[in-house]
Amino acid sequence: MTEMDLDVVIIGAGISGIDAAYHLRKRHPDRRFAILEQKESFGGTWHTHRYPGARSDSDLYTFGFGWKPWTGTPIATADEISAYLGEALSENDLHRHIRYRSRVVAADWKGDHWRLLVEGPENERSPITCRFLWMCQGYYNHDAGYVPEFAGIESFAGRVVHPQTWPSDLDYSGKKVIVIGSGATAATIVPAMAGSAAHVTMLQRSPTYFYPRPKVSPVEKMLAPLALPPEWTHEIMRRRFLLESGETARRAREEPDALRADLLAGARAYLGEAFPIDPHFSPRYPPWRQRIAVVPDGDLFSAIARGEASVVTDEIERFTPNGIRLASGAELGADIVITATGFRMSMMGDIPFTVDGTPVDWSETWAHRGIMYSGVPNLSWVFGYLRSSWTLRADLISEFVCRLLERMDGSGDVVVTPKLRSCDADMPALPFIDPENFNAGYIQRSADILPKQGDRTPWTFSQDYYRERDEIPCADLEDGTLIYGSSTASSGAA
To answer: Alpha helices, DSSP H only, in 283-331?
Structure first.
């Protein structure tokens, strides 16, 4: 058996990678592991995003770790989240396992192990071998966001900025700003810039559902005088938010019209009866088909109501030297344009993979519970929830992987590979993310690079926490879809 450098390599030191490392160290304290992080610090999304007002779009009681109580307000800033992640690393002695500025440029499976080619801080390249690869790098490209091809953009005399690559020297005080987009990022940037900028216009092609909620919930206020231990408060609030989001999901399925009316009423309460909710905040799709963006204390609506910001719903015809001309013929003047137009999806960090010399085409693989992938040994990928907190699924995956490793320890197997059974051969190939379930633009733009799912367990990926929290912890590891052995050749999974 080949001597390995490490037992497990975790890719990414964001919230998923930290969660994976915690569970691995707790459940498998003797395993040698490292976290490879391509940036110079930890945090992932919370290191990348530096735009004004950057904050969570999920409550931190469910977005935070189940094993580390959150003690701040539910909707937290990027700096607050980064501090929390730093504490989690320090308290669990995980800092020493992170290798910063280490980018994996190739991953090759060779019989019974992974060989990773890693580019280091000085652009030097060296190999690392490991038994198991835990992909926690997320699902979008951190180096560059998505920007549509806008006609005439080169003629614009002002500055164009994508939130993902926010320049530290951008001064927007007293400037006319257009923010293109209608999602959570735009809804965060607009109120953060309003007041300092001369005016901020949110320019959207189509609207999003927004849910205005208080930064501090009434339940938190009720619990505060009781001086409960932090872990008690955390667990109570976590369950409260899970109950609330579960009820929203139920209403989206069973009474979408009533849920829609309630969401629009939330906007109207801040903007007044005279404001044209339709078309500006009345989406064409049913609630929950895309993420419902939280607006803490209604800050986006309040900025509009004060006249510091406005919203325009129209199509962009082209950029002009002084701003943007719209399909309606109107022109919006601007000194700065912020393209809050979304992510560029990245499958497995855009790393080229091979298995025993054959390149992996991820779009041809079948998702095994949305965690592992057919024909690819000893690998898991953390793809979280798109409408619930990402970390809820990271936790479930951590438990699954640790249990899988325990099963392999017990049998002496070193390789596990998902493989279709003969009874699965007739499965229809369905999209990894069902567009009838979730149809955000960044998913639809990249559907062709994502794996397939089937129509039966374990080849489905429901994106439903309330279903998976029961299914994944008791997932059958002996149902014939996971092939164990000492190598891919000996296991018959090749």
So the answer is: 299-305
| Helical pair 256-271 and 230-254, crossing angle rounded to 10 deg | 120
Instruction: Please state, in angstroms and as integers, the Cα–Cα distance from residue 307 to each residue in 189, 267, 274, 303, following that order.
Output: 16, 16, 14, 6
Helices (H), 65-176: 78-91
Rounded distance between C-alpha atoms, residue 94 and residue 28, angstroms: 14
Residue 24 contacts residue 402 (beta carbons within 8 Å): yes
Residue 477's nearest CA partner among 394, 395, 413 is 413
Detail the DSSP E strand segments found in 182-263.
199-204, 210-213
Using DSSP's 3-state secondary structure scheme, residue 221 falls into helix
Cα distance between residue 376 and residue 360, in whole Å: 8
Q: What's the CA gap between 436 and 6, in Å, rounded? A: 42
Here the contacts of 64-69 (C-beta below 8 Å, separation 24 or greater) are 64/234, 64/391, 65/15, 65/18, 65/19, 65/22, 65/391, 65/395, 66/238, 66/391, 66/395, 67/22, 69/230, 69/231, 69/233, 69/234
The answer to whether the beta carbons of residues 376 and 360 sit under 8 Å apart is yes
Q: 3-state class of 202 per DSSP?
A: strand
Q: Which residue has the tokens 């691995």?
A: 24
Residues 6+ positions from 148 with CB-CB distance below 8 Å: 341
Helices and strands (H, E) in the chain, number of each type = 14, 25
* C-alpha to C-alpha distances, 137 to 26, 35, 36, 141, 206, nearest whole angstrom: 21, 10, 10, 9, 30
The residues of the chain scoring below 70 in pLDDT are 1-3, 490-494
Residue whose tokens read 């060989």: 115
The pLDDT value recorded for residue 493 is: 65
Helix, strand, or coil (residue 466): helix
Both tokens assigned to 383: 């793809």
Token pair for residue 60? Answer: 């931190």
What is this structure's pTM? 0.94
The CA distance from 236 to 302, in Å, is 30
| Separation between Cα atoms, residue 386 and residue 288, nearest integer Å | 10
Whether the CB-CB separation of 22 and 65 falls below 8 Å is answered with yes
Taking each helix axis as running N to C, give the angle between helix 390-411 and helix 15-27, from 0 to 180 degrees, rounded to the nearest 10.
Answer: 30
Instruction: Kindly report, residue by residue over 47-106, the tens digit of the pLDDT.
Output: 999 999 999 988 999 999 999 999 998 999 999 999 999 999 999 999 999 999 999 999
Inter-axis angle of helices 78-91 and 15-27, nearest 10: 20
- Closest by CA to 114, choosing from 9, 1, 34, is 9
